[in-house]
Amino acid sequence: MMRSYVFPGDIDPRIMAIGSEPIPYMRTQEFSDINLESERILLDLIHCTGGRCIIYTGSGTGAMSAVVENYVSTRRKALVIDGGSFGHRWYDLCRYYDVPVVHFEVPFARDIDYDELENRIRLERPDTLLCQHHETSSGALFDLERISAICHRWDVSVVADVISSFLAEELDMDRLDLDICITSTQKGLNIPPGLSILFFSRKLDNYPFAHRGYYWDFEENFSNLRRGQTPFSPATTLYLQLHERLLQLQEQGGPDLNIAEVRHRCRVFRALCKEYGWGIPAEVPSSAITGFQTGDGERKVFRGLIDQFQTFIMPGSRPGFYRVSHMGLQSDRDLRELAERIHQLEVHA
Ligand SMILES: *Cc1c(COP(=O)(O)O)cnc(C)c1O
Predict the structure, then answer these.
(1) Arithmetic mean of pLDDT, 150-164
(2) Atom of ligand 1 nearest to the CA of 134
(3) Buried b (16+ CB within 10 A) or exposed e, 80-117
(4) Is the CB of 136 under 6 A from ligand 1?
(5) Do residues 316 and 199 both lie within one domain?
(6) Looking at the predicted structure, is the pLDDT value of residue 348 above 80?
(7) How far does the centroid of ligand 1 lie from the alpha carbon of residue 263, in Å?
(8) How many domains does the chain have?
(9) Parent domain of 335
(10) CB 111 within 8 A of CB 146
(11) Of 199, 224, 251, which marks where a domain is finished?
């Protein structure tokens, strides 16, 4: 049996079953009702009272691009926290769209030096900050509470990529006073890849967004979403899987149980890492994934897991560094078996 410790990981069979059902027509009241309900549950899960959301057919980077086109490009100057490949993507996007941008680099797997961040903001006076909650390339979790407090002292609007922390870490958009958050379906939501989701604080209700990209245009999407529709063909099946997953989370009474399960899996796996002597480079690791350092310099573990066990883990940016996601379904036993196999392959590498 195939086992996946990447994104989205192993998925609930009830969600997978929807993928093999006939696809209904989407320009109907039934489909609109489903989307309006999905939007309402999503806003509840992230605590965005009175806010709005857009669900796009497109991966998470589509939503990042949309934010820069429609919002960041209307601003004077952005500051990007670049702690790895996803932070760097914000920086690339700003440059792509000619948005003035300050590059704030954070070394691999380190936490942000928050005093230094505040100093840079004081000196550079950006009006928008782009960051990740969890930098998935290293497993480092950043402190949105501290970022938000600094930004409010200097009147900086905060956009947070919570793609790999939504439903894995506690997150309260209202309390953190974040302007825009983005996520996508294949991470914490644990359904197939293909949709991305933007959350807008109600403070942005009458914001004059730009029109710099036809497909991702915020206003066009908002005006269709008011009646539960999308301007272009939605990936209908994925919208139905998203809706089912959201109903499950609603039935669980919100995000807390899911967050606790992710945390449990990460604790189990990290105890195994300790047993086998694999270090965890992240200074403040997120529960969403475990990034760990093995002695396997030639990716033999990665290939061996696929060839011998049909099992996927994620290679990292440096030799011997691997990442295991905790957002898919996995039992304590699964994790022990995975660690044993990694150990065997590492020893025989
Ligand atoms: C996965 C991810 C993205 C989006 O990547 P896509 O390949 O477009 O899905 C963006 N930011 C973070 C932090 C991510 O983990």
Answers:
(1) 98
(2) 13
(3) bbbbbebbbbbbbbbeebebebbbbebebbbbbeeeeb
(4) yes
(5) no
(6) no
(7) 20
(8) 2
(9) 255-347
(10) no
(11) 251
